[in-house]
Amino acid sequence: MNPDFHLQTLAFAGYFLILAFIGWRAYRGTRDIEDFILGGRRIGSWVAALSAGASDMSGWLMMGLPGLAYASGFESIWLALGLLLGTWLNWRLLARRLRVFSQAYGNALTLPEFLANRFQDRSGWLRVLAALFILIFFLLYTSAGLVAGGKLFEAVFGLPYVWAVAAGTLAILLYTSLGGFLAVAWSDVFQGLLMAAALILVPLVALDQLGGPVAALTQLQALNPALLDPFTAGDGQPLGFIAILSLAAWGLGYFGQPHILARFQAIRAPEAVPQARRIAVGWSLLTMTGAILTGLVGVLLLDSPLLGDEREKVFIHLVNLLFHPLVAGILLAAILAAIMSTADSQLLVTSATFTEDFYRRLLAREASPGHQVIAGRLAVVAVAGLAFLLALDPQAHVLYLVAHAWAGFGATFGPVLLVSVYWSRMTWRGAIAGMLTGGLVVIAWPPLLGEVFPIYELVPGFLLSLSAIGLVSRFGGEPRDNLEAEFLRVARRLKASEAGG
After folding, report:
1. Exposure pattern of 425-461 as b/e (b: 16+ CB <10 Å)?
2. Which residues contact 141 (CB under 8 A, 6 or more apart)?
3. What is the rounded CA–CA span in Å between residue 72 and residue 160?
4. In angstroms, how far is CA 76 from the centroid of its own chain?
5. Residue 429: CA count within 13 A, CB half-sphere
6. CA distance 346 to 142
7. Angle at CA 137, nearest 5°, toward 393 and 268?
8. 18 vs 8: CA distance, rounded Å
9. pLDDT at 231
10. Nearest residue to 174 via CA among 321, 27, 30
11. CB neighbours (10 Å) of residue 393?
12. Dihedral sign from CA coordinates of 415, 416, 418, 420
């Protein structure tokens, strides 16, 4: 047996032991369904920010984005800039208000519950529709994480793809089903720091091998000048306005991602949001810069060009080329950290949606807190099993899968949530119209209009959803009066409660 294999296995084993310990500690601190879903709304700024960032970026940060930079160079900067601006706007516009209103409206633990309470939806249709969209899009999103995990285990341990995906799925289930939100949040902090360290170290060592940044830029300029032009694709073709807009528009998706928004609901107090925002934006800037640099230096250091989905393994190839096997194992564990930090959050939100919005509301209204937690854990297992089946295609591209799920959530929930916390005249009919419009446009746009209007489906989905909300809300329904006054009143009460506690 190759000794390098043993050293990398040792590094991965240490990583899993840390996660298992976190899961066990969180299991002991999980008493009821609010603890399982939102950690009792008691996480601080650092945990909220790093957990949101780590659960946001997923395997695409370590595989998809470096692969894009490897293939297209500075074209990838538009995607990173859009995501950075979206991160800041999400924390600036939505975080504090969602924290306040989600507790004010019946201590809502899930987004469907918040929307139902916000619009006093007695019919139940708004809640059920929101829950269905979450279940559908998260199956696709979670499967993307499992595909990335399968590729990692396949590359490092030589496992057959199916067994590789199964190994990653079981690892995620280990601590998510036991410890719930606290396990996910604490493990995300550890995983977020590991991801940042890896994406700093790999490009720094690679640039040193190349003789420094100036020498690396000179070599890239000589090899392919198009890689250094943000207005040109990697093949030398000029980027049009639609292509740039499609990349930058990824930032719109932040407003509708349930696994990120759960951190806003769980933060201990609205006053903790500004510090968390600064931490989250700083972490995103650091890690995305490192990911893009990783792809660019890979062009120069790897002898054989990577083609197709092999480009998404550029980080893996560089780590094995540049580092001692034990260090390489630790750095490769950062990919697993990126994958698991998102997949665990997605599984938990899906579990919460099933438990709160289907099981407890429709099937077991009088279920005890203990039974609710058990139902949540079983839901994690069931969703992971379905996502595993979807992830069995080894040809699936991580960035492609993530792009569709990201657009789905962004267009379905983003406009609805943004308008719901600012506009008093929005109605439950407007919310339903916005969700249906955004979700259906994202699903239908690529096959029906993608050839004619080749723009990222999130853009038309988001804009048409906003239009539907405004149009339908103006005709019928009962608007909520004095939303701003209600926000200020509840925010003051929460601040006084935090100061007294």
Report:
1. ebbbbbbbbbbebbbebbbebeeeeeeeeebbbbbbb
2. 342, 346, 401, 402, 405, 406, 409
3. 30
4. 18
5. 11
6. 6
7. 125
8. 16
9. 93
10. 27
11. 13
12. positive
SS (H, E, C) 160-223: CHHHHHHHHHHHHHHHHHHHHHHHHHHHHHHHHHHHHHHHHHHHHHHHHHHCCHHHHHHHHHHH
Q: Model pTM greater than 0.90? A: no
CB 267 within 8 A of CB 423: no
d(CA 78, CA 193): 25
| Paired tokens of 368 | 């005890």
When pLDDT is cut at 50, 70 and 90, the band that residue 208 belongs to is very high
Query: What is the number of other CB atoms lying within 10 angstroms of the CB of residue 162?
Result: 14
Q: How many residues does the chain have?
A: 501
Encode pLDDT of 302-311 as tens digits. Answer: 988 888 878 8
Please tell me which residue, 379 or 261, carries the higher pLDDT value: 261
CA–CA separation, 334 and 18 (whole Å):
13
CA distance 85 to 95: 15
Give the torsion through C-alpha atoms of 264, 268, 274, 279, to 10 deg: -80
Helical spans, DSSP H, in 302-397: 314-322, 325-354, 369-390
CA dihedral sign, ordered 394, 136, 37, 263: positive
- The two most distant CA atoms of the chain are separated, in Å, by 71
Cβ neighbours, 10 Å, residue 106: 12
Distance of CA 95 to the CA centre of its chain: 15
Report which DSSP code applies to 456. Answer: -
pLDDT of 497 above 90: no
CA distance 168 to 370: 28
Token couple for 150: 């399968």
Whole-number Cα distances in Å, 209 to 205, 288, 337, 492:
6, 21, 26, 55
Q: What is the pLDDT of residue 418?
A: 95
Least confident interval from 58-62, 88-92, 225-229 = 58-62
CA 152 and chain centroid, separation: 19
Mean pLDDT estimate for the chain: 83
**Confidence class of residue 1 from pLDDT cuts 50, 70 and 90?**
very low
DSSP 305: P
- Helix residue ranges per DSSP H, 73-160: 76-89, 96-104, 111-118, 125-157
Q: Which of the residue ranges 181-190, 236-245, 472-481 has the most confident prediction, judged by mean pLDDT?
A: 236-245
What phi and psi values does residue 421 have, to the nearest 5 degrees?
-100, 0
Could you give the count of Cα atoms lying within 13 Å of 363 in the half-sphere of its Cβ? 9
Helix ranges restricted to H, 391-457? 398-420, 428-449
- The residue written with tokens 């998404």 in the block is 312
